[in-house]
């Protein structure tokens, strides 16, 4: 995959990462600006999430992300202010790109699920929309 174009606001898409396989197992790697459409400024992961828990429940003003299920599975619900969709992530070489101004909610975590997120910016609380109505107003402006 070579330098993908950055999608416009409101877009999500699946991203497939390269896999190197041999008898010892599989190796997957990711390069910012090459396999994902931004330079990676932060990496974080969720684990030990109770199976009945929900995560997310917010959108970002500027931040872009790619979300992966490194182990197990979970559902991610996406809302761009106009339409909604759902994805089940379970393959560690496939991630969901989420552009700015996209509301996301995650649930249905399997036992032992590990979610890794690659982010375009460092943590900044001011970048979050945590109120759904405020997000809707911004996404429709």
Which key phrases capture this entry?
5-stranded antiparallel β-sheet, 12 strands, 141 residues, 1 helix, mainly beta, 43% strand, disordered N terminus, Jelly Rolls, single chain
Structure notes:
The protein is mainly beta and 141 residues long. The chain has a single domain, classed as Jelly Rolls, CATH 2.60.120.10. Helices cover 6% and strands 43% of the residues. The chain contains one helix and twelve strands. It has one helix at residues 132-139; strands at residues 12-16, 19-22, 25-28, 42-46, 55-60, 65-71, 74-79, 84-89, 94-98, 103-107, 114-119, 128-129. Strands 1-9-6-11-4 form a five-stranded antiparallel beta sheet, with no helix packed on it. The protein has a five-stranded antiparallel beta sheet with strand order 8-7-10-5-12. A two-stranded antiparallel ribbon has the order 2-3. Strand 7 and strand 8 form a beta hairpin. The radius of gyration is 15 Å and the shape is globular. InterPro entries: QdtA_cupin_dom, RmlC-like_jellyroll, RmlC_Cupin_sf. Residues 12-138 form the Sugar 3,4-ketoisomerase QdtA cupin domain.
């Amino acid at each position: 995959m070579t330098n993908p174009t950055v999608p416009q606001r409101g877009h999500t898409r699946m991203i497939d990462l390269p896999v190197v396989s041999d008898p010892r197992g599989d190796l997957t790697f990711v390069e910012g600006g090459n396999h994902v459409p931004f330079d990676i400024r932060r990496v974080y992961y969720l684990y030990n999430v109770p199976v009945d828990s929900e995560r997310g429940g917010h959108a970002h003003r500027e931040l872009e992300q790619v979300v992966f299920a490194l182990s197990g599975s979970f559902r991610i619900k996406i809302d761009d202010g106009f339409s909604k969709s759902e994805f089940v992530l379970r393959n560690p070489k496939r991630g969901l790109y989420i552009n700015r101004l996209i509301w996301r909610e995650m649930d249905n975590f399997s036992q032992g699920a590990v979610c890794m997120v690659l982010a375009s910016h460092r943590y900044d609380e001011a970048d979050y929309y945590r109120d759904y109505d405020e997000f809707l107003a911004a996404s429709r402006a």
